[in-house]
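Give me the fold.
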Amino acid sequence: MTRPIARVLALLEILQSGGTRTVAELAERLDVDERTVRRYVEHLLDLDIPVRSVRGRYGGYRLAPGYRMPPLMLTDEEALAVLLGLVAGRRAGLITTSVAAAESAVAKVRRVLPEALGRRLDALLEAADFTSPARETLSAEAEVLLTVAEAARDRRPVGLAYLAGHGGASERVVHPYGVVAHSGRWYLTGFDSASGEVRTFRVDRIKSAEARAGTFEVPAGFDPAERVLTALAETPHRHDVSVRIQATPERIRAVLPPSVAVLEADGDWVRARIRAQRLDWIPPLLAALDRPFVIERPDDLRDLVSALAGRLAARAREV
C-alpha cells in the first residue's frame, strides 16, 4: 500500500482507541495538515466505516458506538512481516503447532489481502530460497509454551510434568526465569524445586504446565539465553574434552561458541571444556584458531589432531 493508505489505517487505529479526537490532534499525530485529515476521514467513509463528526468547541471525529476494526487490515510492510514470520518460524522449527496449522494461518492471511498485494507476496514466497535446510517441526504444544512464557513474565511458579531424554517422568515446580529459542528448539530455564538448582528444560518434553500461586524474584543479572547456552555446553556426552589455548576468549568464541564450549581463564591461556558425542569435528576447529594449544584430554583427540596435521602436510607437498 502507499504511504497515504498507511496513514488512513493509522487514523482508524487512533479512532479505534475510543473518544472524540479533534482535527488538530489527529493532524499532529499523523504529521499532516487538517485538510488532509478530513480527506482521510472521507476515505474511511468510502470503506463503510462509521466515522461520526462531532460539532462544537470540543468537536472532532469519533467512531460509532460498538464499532470494532476488522481483524486484519494490513499495510504492505505489515502483511510482509506476518507472512515471512510464519514462513521463517516454520522453517526454523520454532512454531509449536502442527505444519497444517501454520500453513492454514498463511492461507488465511493470504485470503484477506488485496489481490494486487497478494500476488506480490506470492511471488516472493515462490521465488525465495533459504541457505539453511528446514528444521523438523517440534511437537511442543502451543498451550504449554504460552503457559510457561506467561508464568515467566508474571514471575509465578509453574508446575511441570516433564519427560526427560532417558524416558524418566517427573513432576516438579519451577520458578521460570525465561523462555529461550535456540537452534530450532524452545527451552525453559529457572529454579527447579526437585533439584534445588537452576535447570534448563526442553519445552517439547513438558507434557503439561500449570501456573501456581505465589511470586518469586529473578536473581540480579540473570541472563536466560546465556544460561541455556551454558547448560547445553555442559550436557553430559560420550567425550569430556579439555584443551588449553593461548588466545583471547573473544578469538576462541569466534570458533567455539557458548553452546559448544565452556571457557575458563588459566593465566595467559584459556581452558576450553567441550562435551561431545564425536571428536572428529574438533581438530578442524582447533586448526582454524591457528593458536598454540595443549590437549589435556582425551588421548583420542591427540591422535585425530596428528592425523589431520599429517593429511594437511601431505596435501601441501602435492604438486
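The mean pLDDT is 83.
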